[in-house]
Amino acid sequence: MKRDETIPCPSKADQGIAVLESAGYDVVFVKVPDSNHGEIVFHDYDNNWETLPGDHPAGQATVQAILDAIEAAG
C-alpha cells in the first residue's frame, strides 16, 4: 500500500487559500492537530482505513470546523 502523503503546510495550504480568496471566497484555515487525511473523516489510515469512534479528537475537530463554516455562512 502506498503511504498517504499529507500536503506540506503551510505552503500548499497558502496556495489554496490564495486561489479561493482571489475567487471571492472568505477563507478560514483550520489545522487539525496530530491528524492525517483519514482521521479527519473518522478513518484510521494506518489500520486499513478502519472506522474510528465518533468521539475521536481529529474527527470531532473537523466536524466542529464544518459546523462553524455553516454557521458563518448563515
Question: Can you describe what's shown?
Answer:
The protein is mainly alpha-helical. The chain has one domain. Helices cover about 40% and strands about 5% of the residues. It contains 2 helices and 2 strands; from the N terminus they run H-E-E-H. Strands 1-2 form a two-stranded antiparallel ribbon. A hairpin with a 5-residue loop joins strand 1 and strand 2. It is globular and about 40 Å long. About 5% of the residues are buried.
Strands, helices and their partners?
Elements: H1 11-22, E1 43-44, E2 50-51, H2 57-73
Antiparallel strand pairs: 1-2
State the major sheet. 2 strands, antiparallel
End-to-end distance: 42 Å
Order of helices and strands: HEEH
Name the helicity range. 25-40%
Secondary-structure-derived class: mainly alpha
* Dominant shape: globular
- What is the CA-atom radius of gyration, in angstroms? 14 Å
| Mean pLDDT figure | 84
Distinct helical segment count: 2
Number of strands: 2
| Spans where pLDDT lies below 50 across 5 or more residues | none
Count of the separate structural domains: 1
Q: What is the topology, as strand order, of the major beta sheet?
A: 1-2
- Beta-strand level of the residues, as a percent range? 5-15%
Overview in brief:
This protein is mainly α. It has one domain. The protein is built from 2 helices and 2 strands, in the order H-E-E-H.
